[in-house]
Amino acid sequence: MLSKSQKRIIIIIIGIIFSAYIWNVNASFGNPFEPCLILSTTTFLIIYTPFEIYWSFRDLYFDRWAPIKFGSLITSKIKIEVGKSKRGKSRCIVACLICSNDQEIVKSKNTIVVVCHGFSDTKETLQYYYLPLAYQGYTILAYDARGTGESKKVGRRSQFLKRIDDYRKIIEWVKDHDQLKNKKIFSVGFSIGAITVLCGGFSNVHIEKMIAISSISYYKQNLPKYNPIVMLSYLLKGVKLFPNKEENEKISPYIVIDKSKRLLSEDIWQYYSKKIFLIHARNDKIIKFKNFKENVELLDLSEENTLVLNKGGHTQKKNELVLVAASLKFFNA
User: Fold this and answer.
1) Is the pTM of this model over 0.85?
2) Is the pLDDT of residue 205 over 80?
3) In a domain? residue 304
4) Does residue 259 fall inside a structural domain?
C-alpha cells in the first residue's frame, strides 16, 4: 500500500503533466507568458488542492476520540490564577483534577501528574492517555492551556512564552495546595505541551519525572516551514514563525537544557537528565525525528529513557496503548 508521501508525489507529477499541457496549448495559441503561467498554475492547484484538503480532513477524522464516560473516578473542576487583566480581573486556567475513588491506591502512588496538551488540543483530547493513569492510582491535573477550551479567554494559544509561565504557576499552585503539596509531581507534555514541560520544568526541583512526546529541539530552526497546511494554520493563529534570539532561547528545549547543563555539577546533571523520558515517531512530519536525536544526545539518555515508534506521525495515531504502557513503566520504576 502506498504511503501518503508516495501518493502526494504521484499527484504532484500528474498535476505538473496537466499544467504543462495547458501551458503548451495556450502557448500554441500565441498567448503571452503571464496568462500561460496563471492558467497552468491554476490547473495544478485544481488537481492538487482537493487531495491535500482531503488528507487533512481525513487525518482530523482518524485522530478523533469519542467522549469517554468513566466510572470509579472522582473528577473536580478547578481554576488556577495565572495573571490579571488590565481591569484587575483574575485570569484563570481551567483544569480538571481526576483520581480513583480507591483512596488506598491513590495514597500508595502519592503522585500528581500534570498533563500539557498540544497546540490544537484541549484537556479532553488526551483522556485516552491520562484516564488509565488515574485508574492506576495517579492523581491527574489536566488543564486547558491559554487560548484553548475553557481557558480561551486567558490569552492566545500562540503565546508560547506565557504558556510556559502559566505552567510554572500551575506547579507552584500544586506545591501550595493543602491536599496536594505532599505529593510527588510528574509531568507529561505533547508537542507544544512538551516544549512547555521541558522549558518550564526541567530545572524545577519539585518535578521528579517528565515525559515529552513529539518534542522539538531548536524552535526556530525546526518549525515545519515547508508544510503549507501547517504554516497557514500557524499564521492564521498568530504563531511567531521568526522569534527573536531571546524568545527562541526560551522556547527551545535544547537551549534551555544545555544552559542548565553548563551550570550543574556532573552528579546533579545525571539526576536531572534521568528524570526525562522522550517519545517520538520516526515518520513525524511536523517535528522531524532529528529533533528527538538532538535532545537524546544532549541528555545522554539510555534506551530505558526513550521510546522510538516507527509509525504514528506527530499525533502518535494508533500508538495510544504503547504510550500509556511506556508511561506507566517509567512512572512506576
Assistant:
1) no
2) yes
3) yes
4) yes
